[in-house]
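We give the entry.
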Amino acid sequence: MEITTTQSGSTATLALEGKLSVATSPDLDAAITGLPDSVSTFVIDLEKLDYISSAGLRVLVSTEKLASRRGGSMRLLHPNDEVNEVFEMTGLSEVFTIEA
C-alpha cells in the first residue's frame, strides 16, 4: 500500500492506494501517529484503496478517537463500493463521516 501525506496547518490528508490489510495497517498507523500533535483533523482519501480488512478498520477507529481527543475530526473521502460495503456491514458508516 502507498500512503501520500500532506499537511496544512492542523489538517493532514492521507491518500491511500492499494490494500489496507493486516500487513499494511501498521504503516498507516505509523503515518498517523508520526504526525505532529498539532494535527487534529484527518482527511483519509480512499479513492484508490482496493480493499480494507478488520485491521485497517481498527486503525481508522483509533484515528477517529485521536481526532476527537484533539478536538478535531476525521473524514473519509471517495471509498469505492467494496470498501463502502465494509463500512456499512460493520456499522461504521454510522460512526465515520464518509463523503462520496
About this structure: The chain has a mean pLDDT of 98. The longest strand covers residues 41-52. The beta strands are 2-8, 11-20, 41-52, 73-77, 97-99. The chain has three helices and five strands.
